[in-house]
Amino acid sequence: MGIDTYLTVAFWLGILGLLIRSSQVIGKHPRKVEHEVGGDVFGLLIAIAFFVWVCFLKFGG
Predict the structure, then answer these.
(1) b vs e for 5-30, b when ≥16 Cβ sit within 10 Å of the residue's Cβ?
(2) Residue 36 has what pLDDT?
(3) What's the Cα-to-Cα distance from 14 to each of 5, 22, 32, 40, 60, rounded to whole Å?
(4) Contact 55, 22 (CB under 8 A)
(5) More confident residue, 16 or 31
(6) What is the value of pTM for the model shown?
(7) Interatomic CA distance for residues 13 and 17, integer angstroms
């Protein structure tokens, strides 16, 4: 159990997070609970940045 295990878990959770975030952006708006599309897009961009960083650490250098 080391950093590779952490990166593997973060990689798969990143894929799951990207799928969930993109479905929120693509989904029906407006939703019953007040959410702005900009907030959903910002969350998606943060998820993409984290996923790219994890991929760089796991597969890159």
Answers:
(1) eebeebbeebeebeeebeebeeeeee
(2) 76
(3) 14, 12, 27, 16, 16
(4) no
(5) 16
(6) 0.65
(7) 6
What is the structure's pLDDT at 30? 67
Tokens 């990143």 belong to residue = 14
Tokens 């693509």 identify what position? 26
Q: Average pLDDT over the chain, rounded to whole?
A: 82
**Which three-class secondary structure state does DSSP give residue 44?**
helix
* DSSP sequence for 4-25: HHHHHHHHHHHHHHHHHHHHHH
